[in-house]
Structures are given as C-alpha cells and as structure tokens.
Design brief:
Helix content is about 80%, strand content about 0%. It is an all-alpha fold and about 325 residues long. The longest helix is centred in the first third of the chain and has 32 residues, at about 45-75. The chain starts with a helix and ends with a helix. Its main location: membrane.
Length: about 325
C-alpha cells in the first residue's frame, strides 16, 4: 500500500473517531462517561446513542459498498441502489409488508426479520431484472432510465397503498420512511450486523474478478474470470447491503453514488481494493456527519442525504458533459 493511501486511512479513521464522540454527546441531555460505562438513571439514553452510532457505522459501510460494486460492474458513475430503483423497490416491499401485516397475528420477534426479508426479496428481484436487461441493451446507460421508471412506478404504488391504508399503518410507514436511526434496537443491530457482514464477505469475493472485468469482457475471460458467477455475486452482495439498511433505517438516498465518486477523486480509481476500503471509511464518516446534523436539526435522515446528494450528482453530470 502506498504512503498516500495509509495517510488517507489514518485521517479518515481519526475523523470517524471524532464524529463518534460528537454523536455520543449529541442530544437533549448531557451525559457523562459513567452513563455509558455503568448503570445510572440515564443509561437507557446512553444505550440509544450507542445504538445510533453503531447503526450509522453499519450504514456507512453498506450503502457505499453497494454503490461501489454496481458502479464498477456497470462501469457507470451514476449507478447505485437508489438511481437504479433498488431502494424504491425495497421501500415498496416494506410498504406492502407494513400495510398487509397490520391485521395479521405475526409474533413480535418475527416482525423485524420479516421486514428485512421483504426489503431484500424486493431488491433482489429488481436486480435480477436489471441484469437481464443489461444483457439485452448494448448501452448500459439505458438502465438508468429503466431504473427511474421503476422508481416512479414503485412510488405510485406506494402512494396508492397510502391512500387506502389505515391510519396506524400509514403512520408506521411514514415513520419508517423518515429514516429514524434512534428507533433501532440492539437486537435489530445484531440482525443487521449479520446481514452486513454476509454482504461484505461476498463483496470480498468480487473485487478480484471486478479488476479483470474492468479491463474488458474478453480480457476478463482470458484471465479465467467467471462472468456469470460475478454477476450473481454482485446481485446478492449489493441487494443484501442496500436492502438491509433500507429495511431498518428507511431509504437513505444518493449516499451510494456520491461516496464512491469522492473516493475516485481522492485516490487512484483503478486500484479497486483500496477504493473499496476508502468507500467504507468515507461512508462511515459521511453517515456520522449526517447523524449529527439530523440530531441537531431534527431533520429526517433521508431529507439530509437528498439535500446533500442531489447537488453533487448535478455537478457530476455537468462535469461529464464538459468532458
């Protein structure tokens, strides 16, 4: 590893540690170190803040990794779980689950697992469709248009469900869609950690084949890269990572696009191993900053990510147009 890469990692790690400390001290009440380490009258508040930090770190690892995988596979800097409609379909799946399960006698300990599974199933189904379309369309940029159409369709169906939903179901969906990171429990974090670690392990298996794939299909095949297996691994990893976060935190938009973009600006984009590590570091830092802003302003997480992400994507489009 180069000296520049090591310095970048150290700087990002120090910034993450600093923002973690800020997060733990951000809230309506001031907490002491004793509240975090021992039982006290405010230990429950301390636990909520620790859970908030943990889930933001997991989101910072998952969402940029998902976007990184898709951008490298499609060779398109605008590819991502939200632009291609994966987040929208995951949201639609969660909406169906929330509205349908309201009247069903589902045990409480199964509700969170079924919520996550519904989001993963929806995003996995869409990814299969997207990859099937990519084989038929020579210009993969058409997948962006297809993703927008899917997002619009999913949004229309969700609006229809909201129109006919009961008050409590509608309230549950709206609260979920706001991205309430304070509502994630420790048990949910355990489930989310298993899903994220599984996605990261699969991602680890894809980096070396992606390096060959970036040099061209023919060259990748000459190196022995199994392109069909790579496609399946990309489907499973990106869907698992993006859908698991969407299930527990709601749709957090554009982070999967802007973080890989910034990583390519600050370090050699051809070095995929280092790019993946930088994506995780920078993703954790960005999500921790979003968490601080959300707690200070009481603005939902998905609103903050959209306000930050949309101008960045517009600048990316303008830059590409000039080139």
């Amino acid at each position: 590893m180069s000296k520049k890469f090591k310095i970048l990692c150290l700087v990002l790690a120090a910034a993450i540690f600093f923002t973690v400390v800020i997060n733990l001290n951000t809230g309506f009440l001031s907490l002491s170190l004793q509240d975090f380490l021992q039982d006290s009258s405010q230990s429950q508040i301390a636990e909520i803040r620790i859970n908030r930090v943990l889930v933001m770190l997991l989101a910072g690892i998952s969402i940029p990794t998902s976007g990184f995988l898709m951008q490298e596979y499609f060779q398109n800097p605008l590819a991502g779980p939200d632009i291609l409609g994966i987040t929208s379909v995951a949201s639609l799946s969660v909406a169906f689950y929330i509205f349908i399960s309201h009247d069903l006698p589902i045990p409480e300990f199964l509700q969170n697992s079924l919520l996550s599974l519904s989001a993963i199933a929806g995003s996995l189904g869409l990814m299969l469709v997207l990859l099937s379309m990519s084989n038929k369309l020579q210009d993969k940029s058409y997948l962006i248009i297809f993703g927008f159409l899917i997002s619009a369709f999913a949004g229309a169906v969700v609006s229809l469900l909201q129109f006919y939903a009961e008050n409590q179901s509608l309230k549950n969906y709206i609260l979920w869609s706001f991205g309430a990171n304070n509502m994630v429990t420790r048990n949910q974090i355990y489930i989310l950690s298993i899903l994220v670690l599984t996605g990261i392990f699969i991602c680890f298996k894809t980096i070396k084949p992606l390096i060959g794939n970036s040099l061209g299909t023919s060259y990748a095949q000459s190196l022995g890269v199994n392109l069909k297996q790579l496609k399946i691994l990309i489907i499973v990893a990106s869907s698992l990572l993006s859908a698991s976060i969407t299930a527990f935190l709601g749709p957090i938009l554009f982070v999967g696009i802007i973080v890989p973009h910034f990583c390519r600006l600050i370090y050699n984009p051809s070095k995929l191993w280092q790019q993946w590590i930088l994506n995780m570091f920078l993703g954790m830092l960005v999500m921790m900053l979003f968490s601080v802003v959300s707690e200070k302003t009481q603005i939902p997480m998905n609103v903050i990510s959209s306000v930050f992400g949309i101008p960045v994507i517009l600048l990316m489009l303008l830059k590409q147009n000039k080139v």
